[in-house]
Amino acid sequence: MITVENLTKRYGDHIAVDDVSFACKPGQVTGFLGPNGAGKSTTMRIIAGLTPASSGTATVGGTAFRDIPNPATQVGVLLDASAQHAGRTGAEILRLSAMTLGIPKSRVAEMLEMVSLTPDEADRRVRNYSLGMRQRLGIANALLGDPHILILDEPANGLDPAGIHWMRTLLRDYANRGGTVLLSSHLLHEIEIIADEILVIGHGRIVAEGTKDELLAGNGARVRSLDDTALAAALSRADIHARPADGGGLTADAAPEDVGRVAAASGIVLVELRPGDGAQLEEMFLQLTQQTQREQPVLQGAQP
Ligand SMILES: Nc1ncnc2c1ncn2[C@@H]1O[C@H](COP(=O)(O)OP(=O)(O)OP(=O)(O)O)[C@@H](O)[C@H]1O
Predict the structure, then answer these.
(1) Domain total for the chain?
(2) For residues 11 and 19, what is the distance between their CA atoms, to the nearest angstrom?
(3) Pseudo-torsion of CA 58, 60, 61, 63, nearest 10°?
(4) What interface predicted TM-score (ipTM) does this complex get?
(5) How far does the centroid of ligand 1 lie from the alpha carbon of residue 208, in Å?
(6) Is there a domain that residue 233 lies in?
(7) Which of 26, 183, 196, 271 gives the lowest tally of CB atoms within 10 Å of its CB?
């Protein structure tokens, strides 16, 4: 469990994280979604004990990160995949981590296999890695101590669609075994593919949170019937705005249940009814964050 309560981080006059509270539960992948500069990395750095909070608390498994003995065996952290020593090979980096953690070296090969880095790739220097390979290595490093909590900042950055699918499977299995995952992204479709719970942050504040289904449910319905013209008219009489959807059918600004009721009352046969799709969630994400999506000056000289 990751618990964040009333967390605030100020850099001079600038508030990077503004009274943020949330909890990430075991068995769930929680996606932390927000535009650039929204405060995701700062929040994660505070959780991982790398940046002090101005006020509020963040605990991992009930304890502040800095107070966890041998934290890598409890919490796996990947904050910056590019920060790995460029002159070492992937395998060397993992062997060094294993030695530091007192973990058998056999675990290194297991982790390399888990993240699909071949022996040949593992023996290359990290400076020759693609960003996607660095992310895989970073995930292997985070998992090395067999932690039950994972904190990953933009882990899908640089992964191709097959890589994102691979990561989704890995994190899904991890969560299904009871693990807790917090991962960030500034791209909605990555979060949508991977996460069960979604936290949306903009200008340092949580602007929406809920399960993926809840956020979709609050976002209209996609409907197709045997007579969409009659359905659009019936919906309009019920004060529900509907418009033609890409690929046929209608997009209605109401919950699927309400759309279904109108159709039933009007005797219209539906052939498809479901929550609004990702394009609408994207609209919501843009709406929720547009007030906060503005250029913010970086304060020169400010230190964590
Ligand atoms: N050390 C620092 N000194 C001053 N300002 C900082 C510092 N670190 C972060 N900030 C500011 O805090 C705000 C939040 O930054 P943060 O890196 O947490 O955002 P983010 O959501 O992770 O963005 P991105 O998706 O671009 O990584 C930004 O305005 C950033 O400029």
Answers:
(1) 2
(2) 14
(3) -60
(4) 0.94
(5) 20
(6) yes
(7) 271
